[in-house]
Amino acid sequence: MIGNNQQRPLAERLRPTSIDEMVGQQHLVGSAGILRSALNTGMIPSLILWGPPGVGKTTLAQIMAETVKMPFATLSAISSGVKDVREVIERARRQAKTLLFIDEIHRFNKGQQDALLGAVERGIITLIGATTENPSFEVNGALLSRCQVYTLKSLTEEDLKNLLARALSEDEVLSKKKLEIKEYEALFQVSGGDARKLLNLLEIVADSLGAEGSIDNAIVKSVAQQRMAVYDKNADQHYDLASAMIKSIRGSDPNAAVYWMARMIQGGEDVKFIARRLLISASEDIGMANPTALVIANNAFQAVQTIGYPESRIILSQCATYLATSPKSNASYNAINQALRTIEATGDLPVPLHLRNAPTKFMKQQGYGKGYNYSHDNPGNFAPQEYMPKALEGHKFYEPGDNQKESHLREWLKYWWKDKYGY
Fold first, then answer.
1. Are residues 34 and 137 in the same domain?
2. In angstroms, what is the C-alpha Rg of the chain?
3. Cβ-contact 266, 243 below 8 angstroms
4. What sign for the dihedral angle of Cα 395, 397, 403, 405?
5. Does one domain contain both 147 and 161?
6. Residues 117, 180: one domain?
7. 37-71 per-position pLDDT tens digit
8. Which candidate, 100, 77, 134, 115, places its Cα nearest to that of 272?
9. What share of the chain is helix, strand, coil (3-state, %, to 5)?
10. What is the mean pLDDT of the chain?
């Protein structure tokens, strides 16, 4: 349903008002979706919606409240405190059970999350939390155990194209213009798959064209560069800054890494978010080229949680500069990804009998463990036997990187495995 107030941003005018109008998330809101079933019964549990920005978390919460005719309250974890939470709970206690939506709930500290526990347990409120971070890490266990967690997926290009088509044909403002989209790449690239950003970007491009015109990559990039602050007014630089920091580390530039980190710190970014990104980078981008990087990053992650701002900025800086100046390798990252792709293609191949555990007499009679050569009974603690499923004998997943540490590992693997894996 299209709103009547033409002064509202396009993203608000096109915000769905029913579950049938939602774009994407069919695994949750489609005909067999679990949230559709919950709405049909009128029974909404407390839940956490986990997914990237602009995929419909806020919209879904509003639709659920409207569908079951519950009072609806919303708080932002960025600007709300325990006092705000308690006021909503007290109002719900006096008036009626309320559906409380908390955006970016991962930014609530433990005390703020604990303030919700009693009200959720007693049914005073139904909590819907939205988060872009893994709730297993960012929502405390007591609150998480009282909520269902549902994952929202990134919108596909087809979803985004349908959204744009709907905007041009149904919106009370844009439908009066003669606009045609000839190229989509820049629209998708600049908006990053965020539906809200995409619609806001479309609106400012349409404004620049006037009553009619064609939308192509050139015009989108030109308008975006001139008016970046307009379509990014919700300050969704969170992920862009993190991406810049990680790419600077990957590119061995400690100066840029510290700069982008400082931007995140200045913007009030959660210390754990920064530390977690460093921890991932230590394994994904450095890995076996310097295994100590993972130890350093893990210690930094633990330390900043103990110290907190502002002193934790020093620990974060030390970790970032260490990672940036470390030799780089993504060999471990590639190895696990290739192994997972192989499993998708080959299925669950049987474990060779000699590698199977044989805790019972029957299993031993079936040949479990028979012929296994215990590595430590051999020279150099190495037993030349087959460890792969038969269908994958000789298949290599780990390819050592081009650095001093892994060059040594390559020679070690070549010495023991000869030509089997082609090292």
1. yes
2. 27
3. no
4. negative
5. no
6. no
7. 888 888 888 999 998 888 888 889 888 888 888 88
8. 134
9. 55, 10, 35
10. 87
Do 53 and 139 share a structural domain? Answer: yes
List the structure tokens of 46. Answer: 């407390």
3-state secondary structure of 65: helix
76 in helix, strand or coil? strand
By the 8 A CB rule, do 242 and 132 touch? no
* DSSP code for 80: -
Residue 305 has pLDDT above 70, yes or no: yes
- Overall domain count for the chain: 4
Q: What is the pLDDT of residue 227?
A: 58
Residue-wise pLDDT for 72-121, tens only, equals 888 887 777 788 888 889 998 888 888 899 888 887 877 788 888 888 88
Q: How many Cα atoms occupy the beta-carbon half-sphere of 83 within 13 Å?
A: 1
Provide DSSP, 322-384. HHHTS----HHHHHHHHHHHHHHHH--PPPPGGGS---SHHHHHTTTTTT---GGGSGGG---
- Residues 6 or more apart whose CB falls under 8 angstroms from that of 423 comprise 396, 400, 410, 413, 414, 417
Our CA angle for 300, 306, 310, nearest 5°, is 85
127 forms bridges with which residues in the sheet? 100
Contacts 24+ apart (CB under 8 A), 352-357: 352/386, 352/387, 352/388, 352/389, 352/390, 354/385, 355/387
The confidence score (pLDDT) of residue 29 equals 87
Evaluated on CA atoms 28, 29, 34, 39, the torsion sign reads positive
Q: Which domain holds residue 115?
A: 24-151
